[in-house]
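Appendix B. Worked example

We walk through a single record from start to finish. Start with the input: the chain for MFS family permease, Paeniglutamicibacter sulfureus, length 399.
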Amino acid sequence: MSEEPFNLRRIAVKVYSPSLLYGLGLGAVTPIIALSALDRGANLATSALIVTLVGVGALLSNIPAAMLTTRFGERLAMVFAAGWASLGMVLGIVPSNLGLFAVGVTMLGMAGAVFNLARQTYLAEAVPLAFRARAMSTLGGVMRIGVFIGPFAATLAMKWLGIAGAYWVGMAAMFIAMVVCFRIPELASRAPLEAGQSRAGGSMWSIAKDQWRILLGIGLGIVCITAVRSTRQVVLPLWGENLGLDAATISLIYGISGAIDMLIFYPAGKVMDKRGRVWIAVPCMVVMGVALFLLPMTHGVPAMMAVAMLLGFGNGIGSGIVMTLGADYSPVAGRAKFLGLWRLMSDSGAMAGPVVLAALVASATLGAGIWAIGGVALLGAGIFGYFIPRTNRRRMGAP
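Next comes the structure step. The output line below is what the pipeline stores for this chain.
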């Protein structure tokens, strides 16, 4: 009997709905974490530091997340992550002191590391290679839709419940995601193992030694793209402030850029599946690099709006590229552990980008800092252009 043809729509609800809910919960609280810290007595510098704890929690938890996912499986790891995030939201609801609130914010980052790794591993196992990029791009797009909706849901809740309303929305979304994850079926891997191999693979260190060429080669491109992506969220508001625009105008520009980013994920995934990863990875970085070089040359709302839309387009066509490449290069034995290392590199880039920008702004100018990040984007394009065409398709499971 022949195997039933794969249909992405068949798994869409049970695979993507937890990510939509998780993104909604995260999006509900992300804009008000700094305000919540201020309410608990933090000054501006401390509140900014509290916001970074989400990234710190994720960065420190990538390796434990890989071990947890390997030990208990993708489904239970996602259940645990959503439950842990719900508990973190509770510390935003209760009138806790600043220290406990900081713990709750860190818990959100820890949960995100586990949830993101588990969902990526799940899709890498569940979806055949011919549909992988579309599946991963859709995953990234669905998460972005949730993050986009979250602040609006939080705004409605805060009308009645005050600032705690955002955390009530976040907790509810995470709890529902946890329940939905319980109903996701366990997977039997599609990929065969070689004789004598264990699906858990070796230790993290042995996997790092075996895959060091990939991690230090294309992995550097991953550091570049995540550094650029995390920094682009900062440069638009900063440049708008530099031009003297009011908060409402800056928010409108940022929102339109985000809307374009959010709407084009599926066509990008289809191009990656049909033509190859390089056809999206390189243009994504080049377009963002060009937009970042143009941004300091803008002097009014129309020009800044156009550049912001170009930046959103560049980021949007790259939706899912980091997850897709991670799944492509991950070995069958020890996949979760390899992806833990992959996410460690991507989160390192996401943390480093804004730090580099801040250092350059302090020592030079905002425009110079933005141009430097544009240079990082072009460096990433060069790395992807060199390494991705040399991908071993046989190793990835292609015929």
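Two observations about the output. The chain has two domains: 12-185, 204-394. The radius of gyration is 21 Å.
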